């Protein structure tokens, strides 16, 4: 049996990064686990000093297909290239390159950037905190 996975990003500002990734992937905020009414209530249940805790955001695919995305605030900045990245797939077929370019343009408008373009194949992008990902068919 295959195991489910979460993709977790260390971030400087989980809430603002979540605002980028939700529309990028079509994800939504994940509700806290029962019996908790809020994520803050759930986090408080761990009994850690609130001064030691950073923010966080938990996102999920509303269709239940994609992995959960967890964004956790950490004190240190990103210092190197990602060793793992997300590929945002827009679908193969006719007009795939046009869909790739349209999605890349949408993500630039949302705060992303384009370090490299491989015409006709994929666009290398970075989210607002510099985490690399690709938009491809």
Describe the secondary structure blueprint for this structure:
Elements: E1 6-11, H1 14-25, E2 28-29, H2 39-44, E3 56-60, E4 68-73, E5 86-89, H3 96-109, E6 113-118, E7 122-126, E8 132-136
Parallel strand pairs: 1-4, 5-8
Antiparallel strand pairs: 2-3, 3-4, 6-7, 7-8
Distance between the termini: 28 Å
* Structural class by sheet pairing and helices: alpha/beta
Q: Could you name the ranges where pLDDT drops below 50 across 5 or more consecutive residues?
A: none
Number of strands: 8
Number of H- or I-type helical stretches: 3
Strand percentage, roughly? 25-35%
The coarse silhouette is globular
Overall pLDDT score:
93
Biggest pleated-sheet summary: 4 strands, mixed
**Rg on CA atoms, Å:** 17 Å
Give helix and strand order, one letter per element, not per position. EHEHEEEHEEE
| Strand neighbour order, sheet with most strands | 1-4-3-2
Assembly type of the chains comes to single chain
Helix content: 10-25%
Structure write-up:
The two termini are 28 Å apart. The chain is α/β, with parallel strands linked by helices. The model has no long low-confidence stretch (mean pLDDT 93). A hairpin with a 5-residue loop joins strand 7 and strand 8. Helices cover 23% and strands 28% of the residues. The longest helix has 14 residues. The strands form 2 sheets. Strands 1-4-3-2 form a 4-stranded mixed beta sheet, with helices on one face. The chain has a 4-stranded mixed beta sheet with strand order 5-8-7-6. It is globular and about 50 Å long.
């Amino acid at each position: 049996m295959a195991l489910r996975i979460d993709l977790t990003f260390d971030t400087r500002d989980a809430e603002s990064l979540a605002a980028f990734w939700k529309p990028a992937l079509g994800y939504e905020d994940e509700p806290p686990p029962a019996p908790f009414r809020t994520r803050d209530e759930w986090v408080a249940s761990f009994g850690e000093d609130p001064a030691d805790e950073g923010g966080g955001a938990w996102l999920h695919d509303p269709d239940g297909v994609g992995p959960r995305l967890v964004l956790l605030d950490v004190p240190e900045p990103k210092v190197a290239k990602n060793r793992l990245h997300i590929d945002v797939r827009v679908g193969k077929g006719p007009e795939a390159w046009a869909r790739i370019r349209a999605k890349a343009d949408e993500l630039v408008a949302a705060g992303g950037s384009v370090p490299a373009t491989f015409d006709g194949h994929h666009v290398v992008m970075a989210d607002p905190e510099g985490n690399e990902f690709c938009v491809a068919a």
